[in-house]
Amino acid sequence: MIKVLVVDDDKLARKGIISLIHEGQYNMQVIGDVQNGRAALNFLEKERADLVFADIDMPEITGLELMQICKEKYPDMQFVVLTFYEEFQYVQQALRLGAIDYISKFRMESENCEELLNRIRVTSERRIKNSKKISVKPVLETEKEDLTEEQWKALVRGWKQMYWIYDEDNYRRLLENIKVQVIPLRKLEHLIISLIQTIETEIGKESTVIPIFEEITEAFTWLDEWRKELFNWACEQENLDKMPICILKVIDYIRNNINLSLHTEMVGGLVGMSRSYFSVNFKKLTGRTYHDFVQKERMKCAKGLLKGTDKEVGAIAVEVGYEDVNYFNRIFAEEEGCTPTSFRKKCYKISEHNSKQLSKL
């Protein structure tokens, strides 16, 4: 049974919710009802609930504040918010905090709530089941301890820096950090909701869909798609009043025009910034100087061409923005520790070895 706590300063509203739950077959058991957020916290110290129905607007501690406190103390606890507000912005705020649904008090009596409560039941049962999956992958050799608070903060900090939106290597490293740690699925869900809030604040892209996952793999697939959506959306924006959008548009321009000289003044001018102002903000957002970023993008493109085509080194140098092939060779050697020709030979050897191994299977 799903253990339910009802929190509302309106006694009639509490009775109404309890009556609805008792009348239906929702696998729910009401273990208590209290009149405000402070009383709810006191109750939860003594008896744990799986699901809390809480009014958004209560004295002392509001429903939203109660959700925030419980998210820290009881991360697996679920909430359904009760509200008189018809405006979606209030409900949206609750959903961002992790609420699984909401019930409008205006419509509670006039509409059949059976479908709504069944939906809440299904979601709640699914989350309770998933909360028991404490590891994102099997621990094969030894037991791992849960993340410390500092490890969790470092993990969140890495994601909120937003390098992962444009930097594939950074994104894969952050994913790997999640995979090797013991993290409940619900905690990963909370991280994603927190990222949605950060993205809305930093670049102004609203996300109306708060994801709910049944498996860890679903969360990773969703992150992949969301990352592409974010980058593409930012690059399409014409209003450049947000700094991250400006820099993401520049990164998109660099990747699509890697053969050009890409001087700082010229690229900064594309988004209406002076050379110095652009350089400072580019490093602030990406963690690298503009020159270093462009050079690494040129090398990444060059390696792809050396590995995937038969083009001459001189032609590749021009294609990635170097008119002087000798200068290209020197920069490539500094970055990769070998010449472009040696790099290509290594790739061919690896490819031949893999082909031989496959032919033996």
Automatic annotation (TrEMBL):
Residue stretches making up the Response regulatory domain: 3-120
Molecular function terms from GO: DNA-binding transcription factor activity; sequence-specific DNA binding
PROSITE patterns: HTH_ARAC_FAMILY_1, HTH_ARAC_FAMILY_2, RESPONSE_REGULATORY
Keywords of the record: DNA-binding, Phosphoprotein, Transcription, Transcription regulation
Top-level taxon in the UniProt lineage: Bacteria
SUPFAM superfamilies xref list: CheY-like, Homeodomain-like
Any Pfam family hit: HTH_18
Modified residues (4-aspartylphosphate): D55
Record-linked PANTHER family: ARAC-FAMILY TRANSCRIPTIONAL REGULATOR, HTH-TYPE TRANSCRIPTIONAL REGULATOR EXSA
Function noted in UniProt: May play the central regulatory role in sporulation. It may be an element of the effector pathway responsible for the activation of sporulation genes in response to nutritional stress. Spo0A may act in concert with spo0H (a sigma factor) to control the expression of some genes that are critical to the sporulation process.
Protein name as catalogued: Stage 0 sporulation protein A homolog
